[in-house]
Amino acid sequence: MALAGVIGLVASGVTLWRAGWRPAAWSSAYRHDFLVVWTVAVVVAIPVAFFSLYRKARHLQLPLRGGPTGRALRSMAPGWLAAALVTAALVWRGEMALVPGFWLLLDGLALLGAATFSIAPVRWMGRSLAVLGVFAIFHSTPLFTLSCLALGFGALHLGMGLHIARHHDG
């Protein structure tokens, strides 16, 4: 989770840099850069997350498919699928300003679903991401939503990842 936070912070920084540090509007160029940077971040983060889950399950001698790890992944899958479908619909309709908020909201809800099979910090993180998502949906300027993404997918993942590694055996 900590490495996913680093990926989120890097993606936020690259998006800001590509926008000249002060994205004022969802221009065509900004929308394109935003989607490219965050798509690359997701493509990098997913294998990292699965490798981390695999390593932890192996360390704790738990099966990856069954047991708590498998149930948690199956609980999160609908939220992630919904995020992909909502993203496609919003991009298709030209409503890019809403995409970051829905990513945060749906990822938060996916984590809340998985929290049933996990530790308390996962539940706290799910709630935090969902709240950030709601704020981003209703205040959808580029700088604010990018700040929410940096906080949620960057700092929050990094902080929770470090906390879980230190206090919950990895």
How would you characterize this protein structure?
It is a single chain. Helix content is 80%, strand content 0%. The protein has helices at 2-18, 28-59, 67-92, 99-114, 120-138, 142-167. The model has no long low-confidence stretch (mean pLDDT 79).
> How many distinct domains?
1
Q: In which range does the helix fraction lie?
A: over 70%
Share of residues in strands: under 5%
How are helices and strands ordered from N to C? HHHHHH
Low-confidence stretches: none
Count of separate DSSP helical elements: 6
Q: Which secondary-structure class do the elements indicate?
A: mainly alpha
Average pLDDT: 79
Number of strands: 0
Main beta-sheet strand count, sense and barrel state? none
The separation of the N and C termini measures 9 Å
Précis, in short:
By secondary structure, the protein is mainly α.
From the structure above, extract its key features.
170 residues, mainly alpha, 0% strand
Structural topology:
Elements: H1 2-18, H2 28-59, H3 67-92, H4 99-114, H5 120-138, H6 142-167
